[in-house]
């Protein structure tokens, strides 16, 4: 393990731990308004921590490839398509959500299209990309980062759901009852219905 690899792991562990603690604290103390946050220092802090974690994850995975070599082509044949598919899903999700709603705008509750399959399709896409990256890297460290990303997204989602329930009331609660937080068997049925309409 190189110094840079160790540093990327340390940065990822540090930013991930701080972000998870802050999100858990916000669940207990919503008056802190750390997430979802209005524009300002709170939002900047949360996004800085999240982006720091993601950059550390990518750096650790890339350095794993450098350390272990480029061999084992099946890793790329499996992991690269997963990452490309996840990127396409992510674009679909953000397009459906709309630019103004991406950071909690007021364009309304989005429940159709890919949002009929998952309440958080962008998170699902990012998790799939992280898993694809772990496959490409062939690294337990990259897999651990993907698991950490799931924990962070879970905490993000719990905080967001409380706010969405406050903002949209029964409409959001009905949507949450019929649509999984991430994915489950209902996602496949909804995906088949969405594909059938297009």
Overview of this protein structure:
The structure is a single chain. By secondary structure, the protein is an all-alpha fold. The chain has one domain (3-197): Four Helix Bundle (Hemerythrin (Met), subunit A) (Up-down Bundle), CATH 1.20.120. Helices cover 74% and strands 0% of the residues. It has helices at 3-28, 41-68, 73-97, 121-137, 140-168, 170-178, 185-197. It is globular and about 50 Å long. The N and C termini lie far apart (49 Å).
Q: Summary?
A:
The chain has seven helices and no strands. It is an all-alpha fold. It is globular.
List the helices and strands and how they pair.
Elements: H1 3-28, H2 41-68, H3 73-97, H4 121-137, H5 140-168, H6 170-178, H7 185-197
Helix pairs in contact: 1-2, 1-5, 2-4, 2-5, 3-4, 4-5, 5-6
Strand content: under 5%
Q: Sheet with the most strands?
A: none
Structural class assignment: mainly alpha
What is the level 1 CATH name?
Mainly Alpha
Helix content: over 70%
At CATH level 2, the architecture is: Up-down Bundle
Question: What brief labels describe this structure?
Answer:
198 residues; mainly alpha; globular; Four Helix Bundle (Hemerythrin (Met), subunit A); 7 helices
